[in-house]
Amino acid sequence: MTVNSLDTNWDAIVIGGGPAGSAASAILAEYGHRVLVLEREKFPRYHIGESLIPFTYQPLERLGLIPLMKSSGFVKKYSVVFISRSGKASEPFYFFNRYDRNSVAQTWQVLRSEFDQILMDNARCKGAHVIEEITVKELLRDNGRVVGVRAQRKSGEVVEFRAPITLDCSGKEAFSSVRNGWRMKDPYLNKVAVWTYYQGSKREPGIDEGATTVAYVPEKGWFWHIPQHNDMVSVGVVAEGKYLTRDGVREPEHIFKREIEQNAWIKDHLSVGQQVGPYFIINEYTHHARHCGSEGLLLVGDAFAFLDPVFSSGLMLALKSGTLAGEEVHKAIAEGDFSARRFEPYGRAMREGIENMRKLVYAFYNPDFSFKKVIDKYPEAAGEITDCLSGDVNKDFTPLWNKIREFVPLPENLPLGEPQSKEVACATAT
After folding, report:
1. Which CATH number fits domain 12-49+112-186+287-352+415-429: 3.90.550.10, 3.30.300.20, 3.50.50.60, 3.40.50.720?
2. Domain extents for the chain?
3. Is the pTM of this model over 0.85?
4. pLDDT in tens, 293-352
5. CA angle 322, 327, 329 (to 5 degrees)
6. Gap between the Cα atoms of 27 and 127, Å rounded
7. How far apart (Å, rounded) are the C-alpha atoms in residues 417 and 415?
8. 3-class SS at 362?
9. CB 3.0-4.6 Å disulfide test: which of 48, 123, 219, 369 passes with 22?
């Protein structure tokens, strides 16, 4: 397929070349569609969110990337472990106790600059046309229907591209959701994260080297500890802002160093090695879009919803929605139907998975909850919990939620995700 960077008409436009955008564009290009990806930054670029969970395997397999991942230098991940404030570790949740050891049960801890480059290169190899260092400024509309975008190149040149369908894969920036007034915070999950990197710090031996560790600090805060290749570790703390900034402490470095003292395991593991690079901070990052899209527009990945990262669901949901969106948009192009209603199943499927994971996150943050309490009373719940933690989220977890509600309340599903009707879109546009 021959494309020209000066072409202005495409089968599909993708805003953002991150995991969701690269996944969707790879699938569309594989089907032979003319796909344009507009990426604001120059890859490779830094990004947080480095841990894959088991059910990332399926979208990676669909993208043809499992052989490459298996031969990569990324640290292999077989489990998750939880650490009490005193430093006592739980028994590891080994994925191979539930899944096939040679496929789903082994996943990876990735360096996002490298992983995202792999995904983008895969999209390019399949035929997607990627323009980097170009910023989308506006959605183009015709009678309420999205028909393309207006963007600005690094040089300052303003250009327009048109397509019958635009996929917003802009990440947590949530380009369309913010401009359409669809973005909403989660009623409860609005935390603050502070993180940095260490080189040469302690790791667990053998098969546990690549485990994701969740280590508790007071008031249901927690550290993540994610081993990476080149002897690097990503480590950060998540909690309510009022807790992290108590006594007027506001500098990310000071917050981080104080919280190290709140967990014996973290303190021990960071007692050797060296902190490298800056300290990062991000506020109130859980959000949802009221709609999955409108006529000519589909929201994908973090642009649709982003959950608190305690269970590392971000990359799984991004790749899952990217591959699902690619398949659904392929059908839309083949049938010439870009109406909002045709994406209702996509919106419902993504919200089902998000709501299941969201319930488990809510339970985690309740001070009266622990996995051990639930499993001690209901041993069969261990498998159900592992399924949800692993990303097998599109299934009926009603029996599990009924068990957990005996210990803590759980939220009702948010009434979100349906596409916006054309009539409402027209009214909003005018």
Report:
1. 3.50.50.60
2. 12-49+112-186+287-352+415-429, 76-109+191-283, 359-404
3. yes
4. 999 999 999 999 999 999 999 999 999 999 999 999 999 999 999 999 999 999 999 999
5. 90
6. 10
7. 7
8. helix
9. 123
